[in-house]
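Morning - NDP inputs below, output right after.
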Amino acid sequence: PTVLVTGASGFVAGHVLDKFLAKGYNVRGTVRSEKTAANVRKMFPEYPEQLSFAIVPDMAAPGAFDEAVKGVDGIIHTASPFILDAKDVQKDLYDPAVQGTTSILEAAQKHAPTVSRVVVTSSFASVLDPNQGTRPGYTYTEADWNPVIGDAAAKDPVLAYLASKAMAEKAAFDYVEKNKPTFTVTTLLPPMVYGPVRHHVDSVKSLNTSSTDILRLFNGSETTVPTTSFWGFVDVRDLADAHVLAFETPEAAGQRYLTTTGNYSYQQVVDIIRREFPELQATTPEGEAGAPLPPVYRIDNSKAKKELGIKFTPLEKTIVDTVKSLRALKE
Ligand code: NDP
């Protein structure tokens, strides 16, 4: 079978490509330019035949994916801006997130009758209620939706990113309800995604947002341990497995899945780095070494474990592998 993976150049997509290719699937990746296609191809020299590309310069344009979807059996929609400093919220976040999602569903319905399942990389951002803060005692489940969307989120670039994910995911389920396509949609809800880098990275300056979140904790950028932004994480390799399983599992039709190992804090991350990489102690803030996790919301991962059969990687392994990988990148 052939799957279309949108945003093939990204951090998460690198591992998604890896998992599907290793399982023998043909993968068609969408990228914005020929140059990006060449960079992605370089990362997968072992699959010259199985990996191909479609160039989609602007996914918010009408009919953007009409050609790219032709002949594929499934779609993995990972492309979405993950930026926390958008200047123009409508143009930089809402349009590509929401129209990109609707556009791929429309293209599938019109031009790809062979598509059985569309997996959308949504986010815990689509679940979390940012008005509730750390919400001690509360457990988020797949029943929760971020209520702060649209204009209510547009003044703050972080809220706007969270909103863009909620709006895009809602648009996907609304599309299915309204247009009754023959394919089904499954969405994945990861919090912070960490782990080794599998995609092409020119230099650490162009590193993706969540990898940079760890890099800055050990490269001397931070003199104190910052307040944890989101209190849950997942290993990118587990998330990539989840994409394959969400595509292959019939019962996942129409479902959303929280994909997370569970809670973590930046304090726990620096504790691991300082213990496992003594040579990085000088550039890694110490904070309150060994401090336990404060009382914060929990995230229920039982549905993904039960229905998709995922075993989530512990923080220690994820962080050690992340640090090793990021240290090997060009400055
Ligand atoms: P990256 O920035 O590494 O990848 C984003 C991908 O989307 C890139 O391929 C990028 O293409 C593409 N993209 C971004 N904006 C546009 C646009 N306007 N038009 C076309 N393509 C675009 O981020 P991640 O890999 O981390 O993110 C992948 C998905 O995972 C996103 O949907 C994100 O919301 C979601 N996610 C990520 C989390 C994380 O912690 N990493 C947490 C929760 C969800 P290009 O290379 O050309 O810029």
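Note: The chain has nine helices and twelve strands.

O.
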